[in-house]
């Protein structure tokens, strides 16, 4: 059984005090969620203080991006090697990085390798724009993004990936994909990995949905067999809302564990 993962991407939000308080409130309400993995992905400066604050809880941390390089004269960059003592995950290929900061498939692939090289798990984001969706290109786009990032990886590396399907048009818009749309794309993603790496790897791979996930719609996505969790943006900034999403994941996992 794949353990559901609920990750909160705080993007470039929160002051230092707000970050500590948000993490404290999440820890108090869903810090020991046995059936689901909870990951907070704050801005870089809050990673170290939050790792101290969360010490002893089951919540882990992630970074929102990283450099493709491990160290050197790269002003402003933060490497996977630097965050590795504090984080378990790093997001790579988020559409905001691709669109606003010019990250190409090649850059995403280099970052993904930096994450793996440093013993962390990449959360690889893929997804189509509205134009691409309307022209029927969703499958091609998602497969191209995955192939560019993953095709020459070894099985052991693929086993450490998490894939987040995030349709660009659903991010921050309040207009999520339907669970049927997300199910279809998640099934394409799993099939892509099955064809190249076998069913052992593809069945173990966790696929998240991201894009306007809220407490009100999380259970719909989590009910989909191929969807193993959520990458949550806006709703992760509200402890109550975020923990309700975690609770939906816990309930689903509990039902599966009990054979329901
Ligand atoms: O990384 C998170 C996604 O971009 C989703 O953001 P959102 O939940 O605010 O739509």
From TrEMBL:
NCBIfam families membership: tim (TIGR00419)
Family per similarity comment: Belongs to the triosephosphate isomerase family.
CDD domains for this protein: TIM (cd00311)
Gene3D superfamilies: Aldolase class I
Cytoplasm found in the keyword field: yes
Role according to the record: Involved in the gluconeogenesis. Catalyzes stereospecifically the conversion of dihydroxyacetone phosphate (DHAP) to D-glyceraldehyde-3-phosphate (G3P).
Quaternary structure and interacting proteins, as annotated: Homodimer.
Catalytic activity of the protein: D-glyceraldehyde 3-phosphate = dihydroxyacetone phosphate
Enzyme class label: isomerase
InterPro entries according to UniProt: Aldolase_TIM, TIM_sf, TrioseP_Isoase_bac/euk, Triosephosphate_isomerase, Triosephosphate_isomerase_AS
Catalytic residues in the record: 94 (electrophile), 166 (proton acceptor)
Coiled-coil region(s): none
Pathway participation: Carbohydrate degradation; glycolysis; D-glyceraldehyde 3-phosphate from glycerone phosphate: step 1/1; Carbohydrate biosynthesis; gluconeogenesis
Binding site for substrate: 9-11, 172, 212, 233-234
Isomerase found in the keyword field: yes
EC number annotated for this UniProt entry: 5.3.1.1
A GO MF term: triose-phosphate isomerase activity
The protein, known as: Triosephosphate isomerase
Sorted UniProt keywords: Cytoplasm, Gluconeogenesis, Glycolysis, Isomerase
GO annotation, biological process: gluconeogenesis; glyceraldehyde-3-phosphate biosynthetic process; glycerol catabolic process; glycolytic process
Gene Ontology CC annotations of this record: cytosol
UniProt organism field: Thermomicrobium roseum (strain ATCC 27502 / DSM 5159 / P-2)
UniProt subcellular location: Cytoplasm
